Amino acid sequence: MQLDIRLPMGLLFLLLGAILLVYGFASNPAIYAAHSLGQNVNLTWGVVFALFGAFMLWLARKKKT
Amino acid sequence: MSLNPIFAVTAAGAGQVILNLATVDYVILASYFIFVIAIGWVIRRSMKTSSDFFESGRSLPAWICALGFIGANLGAQEVMGMAASGAKYGIATSHFYWVGAIPAMVFVGLFMMPFYYGSKARSVPEYLKLRFDEKTRTFNALSFAVMTVFSSGISMFALAKLLNAILGWNFDACIIFSSLIVLIYIYSGGLTSAIYNEVLQFFLIVLGFLPLVILGLQDIGGWSGLMHNLDAYSATKGMPGAWSHSWQYMADAKANPIGIEWFGLVAGLGFVLSFGYWCTDFLVIQRAMAAKDMNAARRTPLIAAVPKMMFPALVILPGMLAIALYHKGGTAGIGLPVGADGNPDYNMVVPAMLAKYFPNGMLGIGLTALMASFMSGMAGNVTAFNTVWTYDLYQRWINPDPTDAHLIRVGRVTTVVGLIISACCAYAAAKFNNIMDMLQLVFGFVNAPLFAIFLLGMFWKRATGHGAFFGLLLGTLLAAIFQGCTLPVGETAGLLKGGWLGVHHTFVSSMAQNFWLAIFAFSGCFLGTLFISLATAPNRTDDQLRGLVYSLTEKHKDAHGPWYVRPFPLGITVLGATLVLNIIFW
Description:
Helix content of chain B: over 70%
Number of strands of chain B: 2
Structural class of chain B: mainly alpha
Strand content of chain B: under 5%
Order of helices and strands of chain B: HHHHHHHHHHHHHHHHHHHHEEHHH
Number of helices of chain B: 23
Shape of chain B: globular
Distance between the termini of chain A: 15 Å
Order of helices and strands of chain A: HHH
Largest sheet of chain B: 2 strands, parallel
Oligomer: heterodimer
Distance between the termini of chain B: 29 Å
Radius of gyration of chain A: 15 Å
Largest interface: A-B, 31 and 32 residues
Shape of chain A: rod-shaped
């Protein structure tokens, strides 16, 4: 039985999303004014990464059952 | 070797863009590397036979192979090179996708995969042995093996030089670290490991670069703001409008920044070079040959073509945005350094965009995506190298009757050796730029005519082994002579630029010289193979050619089911969509 790539991929993206989210909450808003047009991209893309990761995990789980 | 237009060995990381990493960025980078190694470690247990190691046991679903197919090609040189071209040429860079990739990808899926996959050959050179003879195979295997370790070395060099320039990391440490990571996961998981990492890297690049494009577009004032600034920029270059249209200025080579006219573009890039790469380069074909069945193998390049046709938005657009921002606000607007020739340093487009738009956090993601793509570029080459070395050179010439366990061992040792040679190439590239450019040139001569013998081999059963081998030599020789007789405008004659046999024709750009060289080499090889085949006796019986040649192979029936699981309707849809994109951005 080979490893289903969606499992590690889902975990990785979920983890990266979580890191971005935590950092997005904790970081100084000044860095967003200096870089990303004032938008907290860490929060928005943290959500996107986490959702993508969760979706991959759901696909892997769906196939298993 | 991909069809990369600009990102040259000499170019990587010359500018003064500096990225400042924070702890969070290091945490993100570390998480990625831990996952990569863990995946290799887990897959290690399912590596039981040599087929598992070299061919993923021919067991992968089409979508994984497709993302591996596209991921192996989406190395960092591609990402950075296409962004550089986007800045230098504008929308016309999309020709490298919509002309120079999609048609060939559809062709290989529909018409050639049945022979590669159906012949049960384990590599592209092995197909050549079955179809033609041993000498044609060995010629192809040798040139391919040298080319792959060399390309992997170039990736390594470019990565180390870039990280050294933008992060101040130690060059040697980067070489050692990147080789070790690639070594660990290929050594343990073989091709499957490489493909899985290509899939990971694909999503990292897509999700990591999308915010860059979105932020850049918001900043410049949306699409209309981008077009407005590009038009203003192109006017300063004496080619008003040329950056915002793909075809409109292609009638005359002097009217567009690429410096090529439509015929050279379509025949040279769209036919010879593109088909030569996508239809014969084992690096990409290997991904499709790992598929679980014929239908999946044929659909691999077709599914891969769907993201491929969207990639201009991800990799070319950042370059267009960068040059538009540069025009709008000068160096201060984007932080793009100016090169020695007074033009912006196009190769630094991606680092400059990352530095401008990504705060810490997303910066870690962007950097991880970039490093991942450098490494999967290396890994792709290393896996293709160890397969060709083990099957086509070692098993043929050194040990014809090995046990299966022995083959896996050879594959693993080859991985180590391949990476060591790559590292040597990386240092050679750092020391002698000209030698690397020279090698790249020579591979260009060998590759340009290659597609002719596959085309004749697959669709004309009368093509013979002698025909293919000597046709190939003739094509390669013609390529060298062609280069010796022509020169791009503004260059001085020499071994590297051409004209060493006397300048009989000058081209508007080196790209034009390159495309026309390919057209000549292909035609020479095609005609040479044709006539030599007719003059020599067939060396394969019809029975031996069954499954290898179109007219002697039972037509593969499309699977039943919706259109997207059947190769033909899928292929036609992909071509139709590409046509629409060409018209929209005409």
